[in-house]
Model the fold of this input.
Amino acid sequence: MSAVTLTDIVKRFGDFTAVHRMSLEIPEGGFVTLLGPSGCGKTTTLRMVAGLLDPTEGEIAIKGKRVNEVPIHKRNLGIVFQNYALFPHKTVAENVAFGLRYRDVPKSDIARRVQDALELVQLPDVGDRYPKALSGGQQQRIALARAVVIEPDVLLLDEPLSALDANLREDMRVELKRIQDRIGVTTIFVTHDQSEALAMSDEIVVMSNGRVEQVGPPEEVYNTPSSEFVARFLGASNILEASAEGRANGTVTLDVPHFGRIGVPAVRAPQIAGAGPAKLVLRAEKLTLAKPGTAPEDAVTVDGTVETVDYQGQAVRYFLRIGDAQFQAINMIDGHPFHEGDAVSVILRPRDCSALPGGTA
Amino acid sequence: MTVEAREARQPWILLSPALSAVALLLFVPLIFIVVYSFWLRSAAGADQVGFYLDNWQEALSDPFYRDILLNTLKIAAITTLVCALMGYPAAYFIARSSGNKAVLLLLLMLPFWISYIIRTMSWINILGVSGAFNSALMAVGILDEPVQMLYNETTVILGLVHFLLPFMVLNVFVSLDGIDRNLEDAANSLGATKWQAFTQVTLPLSLPGLAAGGLLCFVLGAGTYITPLVLGGPTDAMFANLVYEAIITQLNWPLGSALSLMLLAVLGALVLIYNRYLGMAQLMKGLG
Done:
């Protein structure tokens, strides 16, 4: 049985449709991320599951039971908000105990369960402080403790890391995943940050303009994007107009300008059945630069020129000119980075490519 | 001069016009009033300069003054309570309305464009013997002849509520508007009903605004003399009416001074208690 089932969910605000007929199944204990740019409908979807918004059409079921008519306070969900939403007039312990007071938990158990929850988030000693006295990261942990202490059926996380600064965000990401693994709660995570989504999820739901673009495990969504939007949203991609020549022996052969013929593994071109227009998706980090003439024999190689260098410390992003087209390549820095104006060999391995049907944008 | 000294001086330079105005227009007259209260009004009609305690003795010992002071505090308290009960939902509605807050706040401020006295007198046209309310009741046949509804304690409170309600709404609004909406959602998600979320989260967080609005309503209500003058009967005088009476009618400035200082002391004590527990900052927020 799925923990959460969305069936043909539609949400309209006046003339504006925020979510178009969305269906989704989230397995018990799963960590599912709704990923997309702002305005894609991910938060609207989360708020409908939470009961903060009513769907215009469709059915939401939690543990197999329709909850459309169940008010939020009876849904038994834990929500962590982007800005933490801790009660400023209550101590940390009172904040964490808040949900327990509405569940028939004996008084003696409340203190113990609050303490357990504080230990789970590694802040056992802050119970009698007020939220204001804690740092942003600590407040976020308390918000998480408050949400999980009630043993919710589903944990809903609304961009919980976006208010933290970069270093803390990565620590909290690991921490959040550790806690989720440990208590095994079904989790829906909303974010616009692809690296958070890739690092934490069992399954990613990529959304755009109120529609689901692709659903799949991180590797699949990353390696075999099902649309140009997904390819561009998850990391930097070069997308080339090409023409498919056919599908044979587990390979789809594409004729690509500048690069010639490339045999893409058929599993990474699932939407291409035969000959016709197609698009080749080249991940920027799979495009390797080398000094001219040093490329290995088995790879596809073209000559290019470095136009712009965007130095990022351990990696560098190059903007390249190959013929009349501009490409992006992200390479780890090994030795010396190339400079603007350098002539380079651009190397790609066909098995790192994926392909989409062409024709439509 | 060091940079520190210059920076320390700067706020005082900026404040000096306001401070001078307060000193000249408030503290100096106040000192005059204190001095006046120890003078004596002689039978001949001239003020006798000196240090007499007679006015204070009369003001503090005469049960007439004490009763009216208590009645004034009672009327101010009822007015404040009614303002709180009526103003809180209104403020909540404005704070939670989507988009048109500015228009609603403007509507709230609109009555301030009309003189307080005119607004008070408008009740005569509404509740008076030939007023709108009587006419309407007679037109539909509920009354055969007009009834005098004005000039009692209830109409005084009505007039005060009419005058003071915007102050309450504004203060509570400021407080409610500053509360993160997610807090109620968070409370709901944890199992609290809408009402429980309100009593557990929103209401406690808005109490400073409610207290600030309450203090303003109480102090302004207790200090008014126009409303009882226009809408009250002969027995509905409030304490400020006694001051008005002593100074304007009887020309007894020394007694009037003592009485006004008495009211100032009572209301001042209240403000000090408020400041002790809630601080003035909240009041400033509501006024700004």
Q: What stands out?
A: Chain B has a mean pLDDT of 90. Strands of chain B lie at 40-41, 47-48.
